Amino acid sequence: MTAPVLPSYVRDTWHAPHGEGRPVFDAVTGDTVAHVSTDGIDFQAVLDYGRHTGGPVLRDLTFPQRAALLEDLAGFLRGRRDELYALSARTGATLFDAKFDVDGGLAVLRSYAELGRTALPDARVYVEDELIPLGRRQGSFLGRHVCVPMRGVAVQVNAYNFPVWGPLEKLSQSLLAGVPAVIKPATATAFLTAQLVELVVESGVLPPGSVQLLCGGVGDLFEHLTEQDLLSFTGSAATAHLLRNHPTVTSRAVRLNAEADSLNCSILGPDAAPGTPEFDLYVDQVVTEMTVKAGQKCTAIRRALVPAPAVDAVLQALTDRLGRVTVGNPAADGVRMGPLAGVDQRDEVRHAVAALEGSTKRVFGDPYRVDTVDADPERGAFLSPILLHGPDPDRAEPHEVEPFGPVATVLPYDRPEDAVRLAARGKGSLAGSLVTADAELASRMVLDLAPWHGRILVLSEQNAAESTGHGSPLPQLVHGGPGRAGGGEEMGGLRGMLHHMQRSAVQAGPGVLDALTGGRTSG
Ligand code: NAP
Q: What percent of the chain has pLDDT over 70?
């Protein structure tokens, strides 16, 4: 049976592309799942449809009304999530991974729904701060910041590793702001995002024009972006660089948010010697980050910074734990880690490991050999977890090469200030963590780590039971990071929504400002 060509959803119809397109493979078997192509799609018309059909309807709704759409959509998708779990297996996801992706995406939808219901006014305008007196005579001339939805479309380009969470996370924020979306999934897992959008369409919850889907290349889409459109990107730093420098994006100052790759670190505190609860938490956390989604998480720990005297114990504990990780077909019983998303992605990780091997020693795993349960390790994109040890933490490679898979490097440090300095060598990360019971030390280190991190977890025995973990972005908290991590910010509660709105400082008399803001104080 020939694999289908995935349709795109444009202008509220399913568009079957001309021609065969690029094949997309099953991560487990290597079979072709589908083809993608956007041939024949008029990209200008796609953007115009969002701007002229979706935008006005969404803007006409108040925040609570938009929030109700998100809530209804989350409810509908929740009822159908088994279908998404099932298809996730073909991307290499275990059921646990699939829940991380699918349930995580639904949690973001619900979180923004709640925000819209409880923290936003029954209005279409978001008002910041209080009235700001500007004139000499009291009260006749004032200022106020108001935020209104952008009049364009949010083009949302997603990475392959979270085919459900990625689009839902971006969509929640744009729809609550009143901005329609065009979703561009990564080719490797586009079939799962297409299934998600099929469900979104079937739900009938969203107004016409509010969501479109492009499976395949972007053609000349970016050339038609305007000052009122947004580009939200998740993926590699190299592609982020291309998009940031696209002539239309630069010349028209298209608002760009980039979430790029990141060499996240986790620091074991000097107090957390072997035998302490924090040492065990640290080892657990590194193993989890290496193996959940086969390490294909933008927030996963790539650099484990460990006090020099504890390095041997950490390597031993990690080796013991990694030796118990069963790799194989995600559908088989007892499998803890599935394959990578595809053999191309595995080749990239193998190259990255080769690049790291000049400055590190391999302690666990072989990039070319892995025992698998119920799967052919070469036809599927299987890879062993790989633990590296970099005895010289000042070598460049561990701080520069991102192996986007189940790979981490243990690096020694001498003093806390050395750990902070090494952390900064990642040149900007999405997430960092510090595992210590020493609150005083943690507060000092956090302030030095903060300029380089979008999010920092301080983990100890005290908060471990409730901790959401190093690698989980949360809708309440910002997700993004400086420098190499893209310099962007998503989520973070209202911040993510406000990114889709234009803040305008209105200067006027009190009558105008009152009428504009419905006499509200703020919000
Ligand atoms: P990628 O190659 O940069 O692709 C990301 C997205 O950009 C895909 O949808 C891709 O579409 C599209 N794309 C690629 N080249 C493009 C171009 N010239 N013009 C327009 N769109 C283009 O990244 P990836 O390999 O899919 O994802 C893995 C990387 O993403 C890792 O480095 C990881 O660290 C990073 N990541 C970051 C985050 C975060 O939140 N910061 C989250 C997940 C992943 P096609 O697939 O069709 O080429």
A: 99
DSSP-derived letter for residue 341 is S
C-alpha 161 – ligand 1 centre gap (Å)? 9
Q: CA-to-CA distance for 295 and 404, rounded, in angstroms?
A: 7
Task: Give the model's pLDDT for residue 523.
Answer: 63
What would the two tokens of residue 463 be? 């908060």
CA 344 – ligand 1 centroid, Å:
13
* Annotated catalytic residue 259: yes
Name the β-bridge partners of 504. 146
Nearest ligand 1 atom to the CA of 184 is: 9
Dist. CA 216–CA 41, nearest whole Å: 10
Binned at pLDDT 50, 70 and 90, residue 127 comes out as very high
Say whether pTM exceeds 0.70: yes
Find where tokens 């013991």 sit: 320
How many angstroms is it from 296 CA to the middle of ligand 1? Answer: 12
CA 343 to CA 375: how far, in whole Å?
A: 14
3-state secondary structure of 288: helix
| CB of 343 shorter than 6 A to ligand 1 | no
CB of 244 closer than 6 angstroms to any ligand 1 atom: no
